[in-house]
Amino acid sequence: MADLYQYRTAPEEPLDCVYIFQCSGGDPIANLEFPAKDRKSLNAKEKALEPRGEEGELISAECPLPFARRMTFVGVGDEKCLTHAKLRKALATVMRQATKNREYQIGLGIPVRVSGLSAEESRLFALREASLADYTFDNFKSKKNEFDKIDGMHIIPLAGETEAQLEARLDTVRMLRTSVQIARDLANRPGNDLTPETLAVAAKEIADGVAGLRVTVLGKQALQKEKMGGILGVGQGSEQEPRLIVIEHRPKKPKKSIVLIGKGITFDSGGISIKPAQGMEAMKFDMAGAATVLGVMRAVAELQLPLKVVGLVPTAENLPSGKALKPGDILTMANGKTVEVDNTDAEGRLLLADALHYAEHFNPDVVLDFATLTGSCVVALGHEAAGIMGNDEPLIATLRDIGEQVGERVWPLPLYEEYLSYLKSDWADLKNTGSRWGGAVTAGTFLKQFVPDKVAWAHVDIAGVAYAEKEHNGHPKGASGFGVVLTLTYLQQLLK
Ligand code: BES
Ligand code: MN
Ligand code: ZN
Fold first, then answer.
1. Is 387 in the pocket of ligand 1 (CB under 6 A)?
2. Number of H helices, E strands in the chain
3. Is the beta carbon of 432 within 6 A of some atom in ligand 1?
4. Catalytic residue, candidates 88, 349, 431, 448
5. Residues around the ion ligand 2 (C-beta < 5 A)
6. Which pLDDT belongs to residue 143?
7. Considering Cα of 267, then 270, then 272, then 274, what sign does the dihedral take?
8. Cα separation, 446 vs 348, whole angstroms
9. Cα 378 to middle of ligand 1, angstroms
10. Does the beta carbon of 440 sit less than 6 angstroms from any atom of ligand 1?
11. 3 state DSSP class of 107
12. How many CB atoms lie within 10 A of CB 80?
C-alpha cells in the first residue's frame, strides 16, 4: 500500500495529480493550507473550472502550479448529509481514477467534515480511509492488481493545521491501517492456506513483529485437559486439529482487564449439516472475528496500552467426515454444561462457548466477542451494521456510540430471557439451535450461558459486515477488517 506523507513543501518531482475534495458550495482552496503565494492561481483555476461539489462530480484539469501535473476536484455533496460511506466511496473512486490515469504519486486535500462528527474525529476518519483506499489482496495473483502501483499519498494540511498536528494524526493512521490490513489479509486468505495451524503461526508472527505480546497455543491435548468439548467437537471432522490461540498483552499495573474473543473457523462447510454449494466459498471468511482480534492485539501492543488485554481465538475447520460431529450428538462443554448438537452448522457458538468460559482465567472486567455467527443477523441488518447483544446496557451503548463515530456501526438486539426456552433440549442441558425464528438472538442467548459471572460482556455478530461479495460503500471486495477500529477506540476510551 502507498506510503503516507505530509504535503508541505513541494517535492522535487511534481505530484501526478492532486485530488481536492469539496462539498456542495464549499470553498476547498480556502480550507487547505497552501502557501499564500499559490492561492491566487489556485483560486483562479477553481473559478474557471466551476466545480460545484456535487456528489460524484470529478473535474480534472492541468494544475496551474508546479507542485502537481494535474488537479481534480472531487464532489461529495451536501456537507450536512456527508456520511462515512459517501466519503469512503469518493476515496475509492479517486483510487480507481488515479490507477486508470497512471498517477502513482497523488496529493489528497480533504477539507470536508462527516456529518455528526467533531472536526478531529472526521479528520482521523478521512485520513484512515484514504490510507486504506488502495487496499487490495493479491497475494495469490501472478499479475499484481493495478492499485498496488499507487506509491505515495501526500496529504495536504487543512487550513491552520500545524506540521506536528498532522504528523501525529498520520502516525495514528499508519498504526490503525497496519492493524486493519492485518485483519483483512488474514480473513481474505483461502481455507487451504489459512488453517487452524497457520492461523496460530500468523498469531506468533504478529507477536514477533511488536514488543509485548505473548502467544500460547492450546493443541488437542491441552483442549482435552481443559475439557473443551465444544472446540474439540467442532474440529473433530477435519484432518486439521483445532486449537485455542491465546495472545496476551500484560503490562505492569494494568488499569483494567479485557478479554477479546474471535471466532476462528477457517472454513465452514456446515459439517454433516452441510451448506448448499452456492456461496460456500465465502465461508473462508468465517474466521473474520479472529482476524479482528489479532489486528487489535497488534495495535494494543504497539500503543503499549496500560490495560491487560487478552485475545482468545478458538479455531477449527468445520468439515464433514467419518469422524465428524453428527446431529443429535451430545457434547460436554468446558463449563460442564451438556449440549445437544441439533445442527452441525451452528458450530461457532460451540467453540465460542468454551472460549467464553476460559476467559474467566484472566479476571476480566469486560469480555467482547466478534463472530460471523448467524445468517439471521444479515437478514436483520444487511451489510450496514453488525448486531450487538450482551448483558450490560452501558457497554452496549458505549460501543454503539463509538461505532457511529468511527464508521463501524453496531445495532443492539435483545437477549430476552424468554429466548432461552427456544434452546431447550429433551436430552441435554441445551441444544445449539433454536427454531427458525430469531436466529441471531438465540445464538446470543446460547453464548450468554457460558459467560463468566459478573463480567460485562458484549457479543458482536459481524456476519453481514465482515466481508463484501462485491465492492460496497467504498469497501473493497472481500474482508473489511470490521471491528478493529471500534475495539481499539473503545480500549483507548477506557483510559480516559
Ligand atoms: N458462519 C455461519 C454464519 C454466516 C452466515 C456467516 C452467512 C456469514 C454469512 C454460521 O456458522 C452458521 O452456519 N450459522 C447458521 C446457524 C443455523 C444453523 C442455526 C446460520 O446462520 O444459518
Ligand atoms: Mn456454520
Ligand atoms: Zn460458521
1. no
2. 13, 20
3. no
4. 349
5. 268, 345, 347
6. 87
7. negative
8. 11
9. 10
10. no
11. strand
12. 10
CA atoms within 13 A on the CB side of 303: 24
3-class SS letters over 418-477? HHHHHHCCCCCCEECCCCCCCHHHHHHHHHHCCCCCCCEEEEEECCCCCEECCCECCECC
Assess whether 349 carries a catalytic annotation: yes
Distance CA 46, CA 65 (A): 13
Contact between 444 and 370 under an 8 Å Cβ cutoff? The reply is no
For the question of residue 275 being annotated catalytic, the response is: yes
Q: What is the mean pLDDT of residues 31-35?
A: 89
Examine the pLDDT at 10 and tell me if it is beyond 80: no
- 414 Cβ neighbours under 8 A, 6+ residues apart: 389, 441
What is the rounded CA–CA span in Å between residue 243 and residue 235? 9
Collapsing DSSP to helix, strand or coil, 32 comes out as strand
CA distance to 191, 261, 360, 391, per residue, from 454 (Å): 37, 17, 10, 10
82 pLDDT higher than 80 = yes
170-197: average pLDDT: 98
* Euclidean distance between CA atoms 384 and 175, whole angstroms: 25
Q: Indicate the residue type of 439.
A: G
Q: Give mean pLDDT, residues 58-77.
A: 95
Ligand 1 atom nearest the C-alpha of 372 is 6
In this prediction, residue 250 has a pLDDT band, given cuts at 50, 70 and 90, of very high
Pairing of β 264-268 and β 308-318: parallel
Name the burial class of residue 280, with classes exposed (0-12), middle (13-18) and buried (19+) by CB atoms within 10 angstroms of its CB. middle
- Whether the full predicted model's pTM is greater than 0.85, yes or no, is yes
Nearby residues of 298 by Cβ (< 8 Å), 6 or more positions away: 178, 179, 182, 206, 209, 210, 213
Ligand 1 within 6 A of CB of 376: yes
CA atoms within 13 A on the CB side of 255: 10
Ordered structural domains, the chain, with CATH = 3-157 (3.40.220.10), 181-494 (3.40.630.10)
Residue of 413, 409, 487 lying closest to 448 (CA atoms): 413
Cα distance between residue 369 and residue 261, in whole Å: 4
The 10s digit of each residue's pLDDT in 125-167 is 999 999 999 999 999 999 887 777 899 999 999 999 999 999 9
C-alpha torsion sign, points 370, 371, 372, 377: negative
Cell representation of residue 230? 465444544
Amino acid at residue number 473: N
Give, using CA atoms, the residue closest to atom 7 of ligand 1.
Answer: 375
